Structures are given as C-alpha cells and as structure tokens.
C-alpha cells in the first residue's frame, strides 16, 4: 500500500499529523463499509483496526505513518467525552446522592468483575500447572 507510493507521499504520511489522522479515519470508514456491505454484527471500527493491524503486520504500512496521528487522538480523548459531561450538567440529580449511589454500583461491579477474572485466571493457571506436573 504505502511502500509502493512515492517517497514524497510516504514522507507526507510520516510527517503530517493530519494525513495520519486521515489514514486512521480511512481505516475506520473502510471497516464501516465492510460491516455495512457484509451485514456483519461487528462494529466497523473493530474491522478498521483489524485492517490497520494487517497492513502493519504485512509491512505494507509503517508505524510511523500513523503514530503521531494516533498519539494526538489519544492525547485529546477528553474532547470525545465533552458531550457526556454536558449531559451530566443538564441532569443535576446525578451530582447528588443518586450520583454517589450510581458510582458505588459502577465501582462495585468493576471490582467484582476484576476479582472473578483474577480468580478464574488463577484457577486455570493452577490447573495447567497440575496437569503439566502429571505429564
């Protein structure tokens, strides 16, 4: 893909943050098109990430062609949560006792899921060790 392009085009992707973000968006849109065309139950963004991973793994795309754009998007991730914060300001009841109750439920649920996951991994690890010792 990019390795066949001219040196100027490769340098554009390596140096220009907007070109890199455009490339990331192209993978995302490509994934959305594939999801729509094949009527897949998988989000297009996931398909786009798989496409980007395949391009990187096959060395048709350099990590330098996406790194700065991806770093910027991660650094500015808070911008994507602004609508959620504004919705919170419109519903003041979430800031009081109801919000504390919801927070406790979310944190408790997260703790339970993490604990069960850790316990499951520990039990599987012990089972594999015991099975390995027997053979």
UniProtKB/TrEMBL annotation:
Main location, first listed in the record: membrane
Superkingdom classification of source: Bacteria
Cellular component annotations (GO), alphabetically ordered: plasma membrane
Subcellular location(s) of the protein: Cell membrane
KW Transmembrane helix (keyword) present: yes
Stored InterPro entries: LrgA/CidA (IPR005538)
Keyword annotations of the record: Cell membrane, Membrane, Transmembrane, Transmembrane helix
Protein topology in the membrane: Multi-pass membrane protein
Tagged with keyword Protease: no
Transmembrane segments: 12-30, 36-57, 69-89, 95-125
Protein name per UniProt: Holin-like protein
């Amino acid at each position: 893909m990019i390795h066949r392009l001219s040196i100027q085009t490769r340098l554009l992707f390596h140096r220009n943050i907007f070109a890199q973000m455009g490339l990331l968006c192209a993978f995302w849109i490509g994934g959305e098109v594939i999801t729509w065309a094949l009527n897949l139950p998988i989000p297009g963004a996931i398909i786009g990430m798989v496409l980007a991973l395949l391009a990187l793994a096959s060395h048709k795309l350099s990590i330098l062609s996406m790194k700065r754009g991806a770093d910027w998007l991660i650094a500015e991730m808070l911008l994507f949560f602004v609508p959620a914060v504004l919705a919170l300001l419109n519903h003041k009841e979430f800031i009081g006792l109801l919000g504390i109750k919801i927070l406790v439920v979310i944190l408790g649920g997260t703790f339970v899921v993490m604990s069960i996951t850790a316990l499951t991994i520990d039990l599987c690890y012990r089972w594999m060790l015991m099975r390995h010792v027997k053979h």
